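User: I'm new to structure prediction. If I give you an amino acid sequence, what do you actually give back? Let's try with this one:
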Amino acid sequence: MSGKRKRLRSGFTTGACAAAAAKGAAMALLTGRVVESVEIPFPSGDRHAFRLHSCCCQDGQVSASVIKDAGDDPDVTNGAEIIAIVEQADPLQEQAEPVVLRGGPGVGRVTKPGLPVAVGEPAINPVPRRMIREAVAEAVAAGGGDAVSLVVTVCVTDGEVLAEKTLNSRLGILGGLSILGTTGIVRPISAKAWTDTIDASMKVARAAGLREVILSTGRTSEAALEGVVDLPEEARVMMGDYLAYALKAAKRHGFSRIHLAGMWAKVLKCALGIPQTHVRHGALEVQQAADLLAGLGLDAETCRDLARANTAREIYQRLREAGRNDIIHAVCVRAREYARRRSGLAVTVYLVTSEDGIVEQV
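Assistant: Good question. You get back a string of structure tokens that encode the predicted 3D arrangement of the chain. For your 362 residues, that looks like this:
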């Protein structure tokens, strides 16, 4: 092996793909000529080319599509078909604006306040809306129809099914996917998608009038708090591995209390003050854990033994078997102390296992 890391490939957002499809459809509608590819402007001022997957004309409408290429980012929308249907607006029915945007099949609709799109609107975020309008304006200018008004309906093939793999329903986006993107570019393995979702979830919770928020590291820990913490669905924020970010964001969004739920390895990392809990950012060395446990009062011989454990789970199991629930409790207390320092808020920590649900609450 050379030791060189493969450079990860960037891709394009659903918003950029929608804009490219819209331009292709508009060009075909206005000129009568089907094109195979289009070039559109990006917010940065750069331009990028897209190949159209399909483009067909029927009954005064043109439908064009682009297959989303997310690069090397593990995105559920990678490979999705983003469609734009373009037609001339009816001057008696549509508002007098150059581009009227609609959401079609596979695009969700906003049902809760707190998002950058108003309740009742299709879930097409502000930057994608601007990109679509600018791309269509280029098509109109090229077609010589400066005064024309067009209706653009954005659709996503199987968007309703893909949306089930996202947190859209939690955010109040129902019936399909969101058309997203702030730059048009998907950066591979980027934290931005996670942190954007954390912020969006917190905005929805605050818009619902909530002062307390549930931060969980995954679906198991989140589910364990159902029926225990009396808060509505809007309070639940899936923070994944972005512990420090979520803690600080809770303060920034104006919450007064955090309910922090996680399984042993994540709670242990919280106690150790590791701000990003994915292994690639903060691999848990069992010696670190053993040193922490020694500082919490575990005897030296047991600590030396646990330093040879293979995983954090093994440490937990052996502490349970030894009846050292006091040490497990102390780890949760230390995790709470870290969360309080990071957030500046009141915090309750819930240690969860997949077998027993909540096993510690401090």
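You can read the tokens as a compact description of the fold. Here is one thing that stands out. The first strand starts at residue 11 and ends at 12.
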